[in-house]
Amino acid sequence: MLDDGGRIQDAMSSGTMWRGIEVILQGRDPRDAWAFCERICGVCTTVHALASVRCVENSLGIQVPPNADIIRNIMFLTQMVQDHVIHFYHLHALDWVDVVSALKASPSATAALAQQVAPHWPLGTEGYFADMAGTLKKFVESGQLGIFANAYWGHPAYKLPPEANLMAVCHYLEALKWQKEIIKIHTIFGGKNPHPNYIVGGMASAISMQSDNAINMERLNMVRTLIQGAQRIVEDMYIPDLLAIASFYPEWTKIGGGLGSYMVYGDLPQNGIGDPSRFRFPRGVILDKNLAEVLPVDPADAAQIEEEIAHSWYKYPEGKTALHPWDGVTEPNYTGPKPPFKELDESKAYSWLKAPRWKGHAVEVGPLSRMLVGFASGKTEFKDVVTEALGRLKVGPEALFSTLGRTAARGLETRLGARWLLEEYDHLVANLKDGDTATADTKSWSPETWKPESKGLGFTEAPRGSLCHWIHIKDRRIANYQIVVPSTWNASPKDGKGQHGAYEAALIGTPMVDPKRPVEILRTIHSFDPCLACASHVISPGGETLASIVVR
Amino acid sequence: MGLEATMVPKVVAAMETKPRIPVIWLHGLECTCCSESFIRSSHPIAQDVVLNMISLDYDDTLQAAAGYQVEEIRRKIMKENKGSYILAVEGNASTRDDGVYCTVGGDSFLNILKETAADAKAIVAWGSCASNGCVQNARPNPTGAQPVRKIVTNKPIINVPGCPPIAEVMTGVLAYILTFDQLPELDRMGRPKMFYGQRIHDKCFRRAFFDAGQFVEAWDDDGARKGWCLYKMGCRGPSTYNSCSTFKWNDGVSFPIGSGHPCIGCSEENFWDNGPFYSRLTNIPVPGIDSTPETVGKTLAVVTAGAAGAHLVSHWVRQAVTKPKPAPPPATEGKQ
Predict the structure, then answer these.
(1) DSSP conformation class of B155
(2) In this predicted structure, what is the pLDDT of residue B8?
(3) Strands A465-474 and B103-104: what pairing?
(4) Range with the lowest mean pLDDT among A35-44, A440-449, B70-79?
(5) CB-side neighbour CA atoms (13 Å) of A344
(6) ipTM of the prediction
(7) Does A318 or A157 have the greater pLDDT score?
(8) Contact B138 A36 (CB under 8 A)
(9) Residues A423 and A325 in one domain
(10) Is the peptide bond before B164 cis (omega within 30 degrees of 0)?
């Protein structure tokens, strides 16, 4: 819905896919759940497996050995770093970078820019850019533009000079080459990527420094080398590109802020999952941009988290409209139009996503939330990277509450993540030197040892935000399993009070130069890094649909 | 890819000089792990595939355009390349309730799949979702999710199962089609024989331990640290066809068994419903004590999803498999 100034007045975010994983899990062995859950998403592989094993462990009272926590932290950070770098270059950059304009760039001017922007990145010579420009030219002249076809090239909202565009396109390709390397850390500990293996009780990859058939010195060396490579990519290519591109779009520090309320469950345990005070990502909620106060959050508290269904295609028993996930129910109830359809009715149910709310508030989750809570909690390393970035961009902290702020936060937490990877690795080695090589606790592996009934939850901070699984185990089988994923928080439809979810709120107030080519919508939606098929509709004041974009 | 040296120049020339075959890559009910696996390919790398080998004309995950502009592309490519584009499908279609559980741009994926398949030259069904159904098709399959071969029955389909398939298997299939101008030889399940011709168990480097009767009995036990066989932990290697134990994962770094976890059989049909992953089927007689190898082989063929073969059981150890009988499966409605 646009006002007469071309600004978005109202927005509707719809999740258009439902697979029924929660239903499929019922009746199964809880120790299998992680494998089903992991297949919720292959982009953010590992996150649901981690939340699931934690959930079952919590329910069964299992504490994993410290090395298992460290290996899981290493896998977490591997995923986060890789995911964020891919997101920036392959899922977001083309909203800001004009590929066709890159063809006009002078290789020598591009080399000069690259050496200024990213002086430590080795691939920055005129010859390199001339070769890459030639490759790009040959591709475009073939007439088959593939994934670059029919996009918004030449749109006035693109502001980068051709040299910056060429540099960014080259780095897009370098990042594409690199992303397949770092995930080998998952392959070493989990056997494959995507979808490495986990187990309830720890990790299956046993460590034995004197064996040639377990995690040993050679395997650890490979992990360490990959970590070093990740640090180079993040420090020498990703962050310089992020700051350089951001500097050309200063108006985007005032667009796309949205809700202004943020939630973080926290993660990266240093003393077991039961001690949030020692998480690298501290937990907390910030309401209404108030960085002076970090409120406590507890996903186990039924009074804090509820999933509403006022505008969602679900039914709850007894006419209820909101339920805590431990009492959650997944009963699909499609009331939308029969496909093919042109519109969804925003006054009715319009999404396969429920509307999760924290104490009735709509909140945003993800990198911006984590950086703000870390900053507001007084953690030095968070304050340092944020202050440095704000200084480089010459903006104040209010710039964080925007599309660009969200994009920058993703980069900054990647900087922290790449550093933490090496710290976690060193911690593992320190444990091994101390003689602790355990990777699994099997005391409660066998179902005979389980209580007849138990409940548990498992949370994590996925790249896209706070994630939690809730389980009810009865007679050795899953009686109920409920999952609230980060994109449900962010992409949620309106709740019973008509409060928008994060995407919807962020789009309101966004100006568009050309509503038929809404690159501005893509910029903001992509800044959340959506992990689902989500559709946004742009409707003019007269009610006609001007554009509909489907974001994957 | 296992080619002899003399074939390499032919492959290189094919990839650099021929016009690029148009590919429409659709996403239905899926998790996107096939796309992610695809870009992990170490040889050829994703950049080479997309810039030099194929023309990836439609892929809603990667393409720069969105919304109306994207659907315009799909229709244009279908029209201009009628009968000559490859349709790659990741994920599958919901067939229940008019397919409302998966819609893209306002239409059901079921409709989109049928419409786009109609003028395709051939279909590549990426991964277990498109080939077999995978997780959303597991009991009770609430959305009526069905693999491509149950929806499109009048086109050649190459099934490339796995959750996801190995990256070099995926790019290998495309490179083969492009280089040899034909579809690879397929087995009776529509899978390329070159990648799905043998079981994990046939080439597993821990096979020697299986033969010697040395098994991991519990996570992180002495056997686990020595890298012993994972059969007793539930390994589906004996009944799973794939290349995981040949050229392994992520440029040969490791594979599930090599990193200590049993194979879960992710390229086989119904693997999600084939009993809890960590339980072995226990009603298998031990040869020499209970019955002859022939009887044992017949029993095995009946109880496992694929034919494990009598040779497997002839190496069975005398140690009885003393896992407790698994709890009976819950009473749920059958698959759609």
Answers:
(1) S
(2) 67
(3) unpaired
(4) B70-79
(5) 32
(6) 0.93
(7) A157
(8) yes
(9) yes
(10) yes
**A303 min Cα distance to partner chain B (Å):** 30
Residue where the block lists tokens 């080795």? A122
Residue A141 in contact with partner chain B when CB distance is under 8 A = no
pTM: 0.91
User: Is the CB of B27 less than 8 angstroms away from the CB of A533?
Assistant: yes
Measured on CA atoms in the order A521, A522, A525, A528, is the torsion positive or negative?
A: negative
Alpha-carbon gap: A476 to the closest alpha carbon of chain B (Å): 8
CATH for B5-195, options being 3.40.50.700, 3.90.1140.10, 3.30.830.10, 1.10.3470.10: 3.40.50.700
- CA dist A251 and A156 (Å) reads 14
Token digits of residue B222: 């002495």
* Cβ contact A280:A418 at 8 Å: no
User: What Rg value do the Cα atoms of chain B yield, rounded?
Assistant: 22
* Residue B318 or B11, more confident: B11
Interface test with A, best of B25, B37, B170, B225 (most A CBs within 10 A): B225
How many domains does chain A contain in total? 2
Summarised one tens digit per residue, pLDDT across range A78-97 is 999 999 999 999 999 999 99
* Residues of A (329-388) whose Cβ lies below 8 Å from B: 332, 334, 336, 338-343, 352
Torsion of CA B3, B5, B7, B12, to 10 degrees: 100
Q: Which domain holds residue A251?
A: 12-94+179-551
CB contact under 8 A, A16 and B104: yes
- Report how many Cβ contacts below 8 Å link chain A to chain B: 294
Nearest to A94 by CA among B63, B73, B288: B63
Asked if the structure places residue A60 within a domain, the reply is yes
Tell me the average pLDDT of chain B.
84
Is residue A246 within 8 A of residue A408, CB to CB? The reply is yes
3-state SS, residue A266 = coil
**In this structure, are A252 and A344 located in the same domain?**
yes
Residue count of chain A: 552
Cβ of B250 within 8 Å of Cβ of A184? The answer is yes
d(CA A354, CA A15) in angstroms, rounded, equals 9
Q: Answer yes or no: are the C-beta atoms of B310 and B238 closer than 8 Å.
A: no
Instruction: Judge if A274 and A384 occupy the same domain.
Output: yes
Q: CB neighbours (10 Å) of residue B82?
A: 12
Q: Say if residue A161 is in the same domain as residue A290.
A: no
Listed by start position, the domains of chain B span 5-195, 200-314
CA geometry: angle B137, B142, B145, nearest 5 deg: 40
**Is the same domain home to A46 and A103?**
no
Contact between chains at B66 and A438 (C-beta distance less than 8 A): no
Are A21 and B135 an interchain contact pair (Cβ–Cβ within 8 Å)? Answer: yes
Whether A493 maps to a domain, the answer reads: yes
Q: How far apart are CA B181 and CA B186, in angstroms?
A: 15
Q: Distances in Å between the alpha carbon of A530 and those of A51, A463, A515?
A: 19, 10, 21
Residue B4 has a pLDDT of 60
Distance (Å) from the alpha carbon of B212 to chain A's nearest alpha carbon: 16
Q: For the domain covering B200-314, report its CATH number.
A: 4.10.480.10
Closest CB to B33: pick one of A42, A199, A549: A42
Question: What residue in A sits closest to B146 (Cα-Cα)?
Answer: A19
Joined together, the tokens standing for residue A534 give: 């989500």
| Across A135-149, average pLDDT | 88
In terms of domains, do A430 and A286 share one?
yes
DSSP H helical ranges for A310-402: 367-376, 380-393
CB contact at 8 A, A543 and A343: no
What are the chain B neighbours of A20 within 8 Å (beta carbons)? 101, 136, 141-143
Calpha distance B62→B113 (Å, rounded): 19
Q: Is the pLDDT of residue A442 over 90?
A: yes
- Report residue B156 as tokens: 């050649």
